[in-house]
Design brief:
This protein has 240 residues and is α/β, with parallel strands linked by helices. The chain has nine helices and ten strands. The protein binds adenosine-5'-diphosphate (ADP) and magnesium ion. The site of magnesium ion has 3 residues, from α1. Keywords: ATP-binding, Cell membrane, Membrane, Nucleotide-binding, Transport.
Amino acid sequence: MIQVENIFKRWGSFTALNGVSVSFREGEVVCIIGPSGSGKSTLLRSINHLERHDAGRIVVDGIELDDNIKNIDAVRAEVGMVFQSFNLFSHMTVIDNITLAPRRVRKWSADKAEKVALELLERVGLSAHARKYPNQLSGGQQQRVAIARALAMQPKVMLFDEPTSALDPEMVNEVLLVMRDLASSGMTMLIVTHEMGFAREVADRVIFFDQGNIVEESLEPQQFFSSPSHPRAQAFLKQI
Ligand code: ADP
Ligand code: MG
């Protein structure tokens, strides 16, 4: 589904991604962990072309992310992204937040977009809140709206960048529940998270990032969390 081949991203003399190569299969749930500043967000943002990699290749569902705007739009239509800070449009109701992109990008009618949005709100447990504004909702509710908004575009892949890091502890679980449901529905998911219990439970694969590269990768999350091989991963897990 996604191929990342030897990508580099630099800001001045600082190297945020240092030759990262990795691929993700359809239906796979991959948790990406690692210290702050190690390049996790930059990798996700590059896959959605929020950052332009300096070198290397990224191919999503057969479409290469180059400077062709058509390709960028095509990839973005297939890749949903959820951020730590929700990023809802504060002047729009919940339902308008969700229907905006499908109407503009997919050219859906208002009726169709609204029907899909209401189904998604039901799925994330927010049917009663369709006509509210984001600032009338809790952080956990806003993040669930953000997930519904991303799903409304019917993406093939969902990227999550620390989706629960900005939430009060009592709201973390309601968001993780929605993500668990999505994982069991077969969605391809790349999740940057510090929720180790969640990662251990849902991940098909764990990737450990350090200083701009993947230093350990494991198809056995249980084993990785109990006995990581790389010294930096050992140190990280001890301190968290
Ligand atoms: P992580 O998500 O693992 O915490 P990031 O991918 O956000 O790390 O960032 C990796 C490094 O790149 C950090 O040191 C950060 O300061 C730097 N960085 C990120 N974005 C920019 C930018 N727009 N300009 C300069 N440096 C940046
Ligand atoms: Mg980050």
